[in-house]
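Figure 3 (text version): C-alpha cells given as input.
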C-alpha cells in the first residue's frame, strides 16, 4: 500500500512539473502567434497544473489514519478531491477552449504570426507530456497485471482515481496537441481562422469527455462501489472452504478508500457448532481474509439461518431477484 502511494505521488509530481512548464510555454506561444487553439491549450495546461495540486492534496489527506470520528479512515476523501479535478478540467479547460473557439470563428480572416514558435512549443510539449503519460500508463498497466485484469477492465473497476486522472489528463493533452498543431497549420495554409476555431472547439470536446469519465468514476466510488472481482472471488472461495460453513447466504463489499475494502458476510454455520466454535471460526476467517487480500480493511461476519424469510426479502429487494445461496458443496452463483 505504501509503495503504491509513493508510486502515485511520483506520477502526480512528474505530471505537475511537466504541465507547469508546458502551460508557461504555451502562454508565450499563444501571445506571439495569436492562435486560439494555442490559447486553448495553454488554458488546458494551467487547468492540468491545478489538477495535480488537487491530486497531491488528495493523496496526503486520504492517507490519514482512522480516528474516533472517522472509524473507517479518510480514504474516500481522495474521491472528493479527484471529483474536483474532473470539475476543474471542464470548468477551466473545456469551457475556456469553447470560448476561444467561438471567438476565433467569429473573428474573420487573418494569418498566423510567427507560427514556427507555435510548432516548436507544441513539439516540446509533446515530449514532456509523453514522459508524464508514459509514467502514468506504466503504473496503470502494472496495477492491472497485479489484479489479473486487462487495462480497460482495470480502468473501469479501479478504486484509485489518482493515476487514472493523470492518465486521462495526459491522453487528452496529447490529443489536444495534435488538434492544436492541425489548427495552427490549416490556419497558416488557408489564412482562415475557422480552422483554428474548430481545433479549439474540438479540444473543448476532448476535455469534456475526459471530465465526464473521471467525474462518473469518482461519483461511483463516493456512492459506495463493491470490491474488485478478484477480491470478491477470493472472499467467496475462503468462506466456502471453511468446514464450519454450510452456506454463504449474503455477501456485501464496499470500497471505503483506495486499497481499503469493507467486507460484510452473512453465513449459515453448521447446527452442531457451539457459540465458542462460531466465535473462533469468525476470528480465523477474518485473519485468513486479511492475509489473502491486504486491501480488505474490515471484516464483519454474521451468523444467520439461510431460510430466514425477512433476510430473503431484503436480499431480493437489493438484487431485484431471489437470492442464490452458495453452499460448500454445489457453489451456486451469487448476485453481483
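Below: residues designed for each position.
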Amino acid at each position: 500500500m505504501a509503495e503504491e502511494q509513493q508510486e502515485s505521488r511520483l506520477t502526480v509530481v512528474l505530471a505537475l512539473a511537466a504541465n507547469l512548464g508546458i502551460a508557461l510555454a504555451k502562454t508565450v506561444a499563444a501571445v506571439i502567434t495569436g492562435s486560439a487553439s494555442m490559447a486553448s491549450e495553454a488554458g488546458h495546461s494551467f487547468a492540468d497544473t491545478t489538477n495535480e495540486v488537487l491530486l497531491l492534496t488528495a493523496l496526503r489527506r486520504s492517507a490519514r489514519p482512522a480516528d474516533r470520528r472517522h472509524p473507517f479512515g479518510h480514504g474516500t476523501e481522495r474521491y472528493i478531491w479527484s471529483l474536483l479535478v474532473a470539475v476543474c478540467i471542464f470548468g477551466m479547460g473545456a469551457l475556456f477552449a469553447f470560448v476561444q473557439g467561438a471567438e476565433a470563428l467569429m473573428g474573420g480572416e487573418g494569418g498566423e504570426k510567427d507560427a514556427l514558435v507555435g510548432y516548436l512549443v507544441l513539439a516540446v510539449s509533446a515530449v514532456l507530456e509523453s514522459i508524464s503519460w508514459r509514467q502514468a500508463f506504466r503504473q496503470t498497466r502494472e496495477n492491472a497485471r497485479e489484479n489479473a485484469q486487462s487495462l480497460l477492465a482495470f480502468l473501469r473497476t479501479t478504486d484509485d482515481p489518482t493515476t487514472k486522472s493523470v492518465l486521462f489528463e495526459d491522453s487528452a493533452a496529447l490529443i489536444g496537441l495534435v488538434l492544436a498543431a492541425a489548427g495552427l497549420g490549416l490556419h497558416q495554409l488557408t489564412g482562415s481562422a475557422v480552422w483554428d476555431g474548430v481545433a479549439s472547439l474540438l479540444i473543448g470536446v476532448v476535455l469534456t469527455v475526459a471530465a465526464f469519465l473521471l467525474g462518473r468514476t469518482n461519483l461511483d466510488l463516493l456512492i459506495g462501489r463493491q470490491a474488485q472481482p478478484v477480491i470478491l472471488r477470493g472472499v467467496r472461495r475462503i468462506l466456502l472452504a471453511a468446514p464450519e460453513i454450510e452456506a454463504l447466504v449474503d455477501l456485501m463489499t464496499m470500497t471505503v478508500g483506495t486499497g481499503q475494502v469493507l467486507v460484510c458476510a452473512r453465513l449459515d454455520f453448521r447446527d452442531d457448532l457451539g457459540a465458542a466454535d462460531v466465535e473462533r471460526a469468525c476470528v480465523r476467517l477474518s485473519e485468513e481474509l486479511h492475509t489473502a487480500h491486504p486491501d480488505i480493511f474490515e471484516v464483519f461476519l454474521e451468523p444467520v439461518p439461510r431460510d430466514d424469510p425477512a433476510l430473503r426479502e431484503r436480499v431480493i429487494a437489493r438484487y431485484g431477484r431471489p437470492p442464490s445461496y452458495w453452499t460448500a458443496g454445489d457453489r451456486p452463483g451469487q448476485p453481483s
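Residues 329-336 have pLDDT under 50 and may be disordered.
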